[in-house]
Amino acid sequence: MTYESEITQFIKELKAQNPELERKQRDGRAIWWDKNLDRDELERQQQARVAQSGYVYQTQAKE
Fold this sequence. Notes:
Blueprint: H1 6-17, H2 21-32, H3 39-48
């Protein structure tokens, strides 16, 4: 018998109780992380960026 930590045991039990859990994790990752970047679009966005002033919260010059 090999040693399994409490965390490993918990995760195995969680996956046994929720068989759809891994699929939901993959779906969530695909939404937020697995993106195909269009390099041309990325370059257009970078070129369209407007330069920002040094301190953006200052609305008036101090007198």
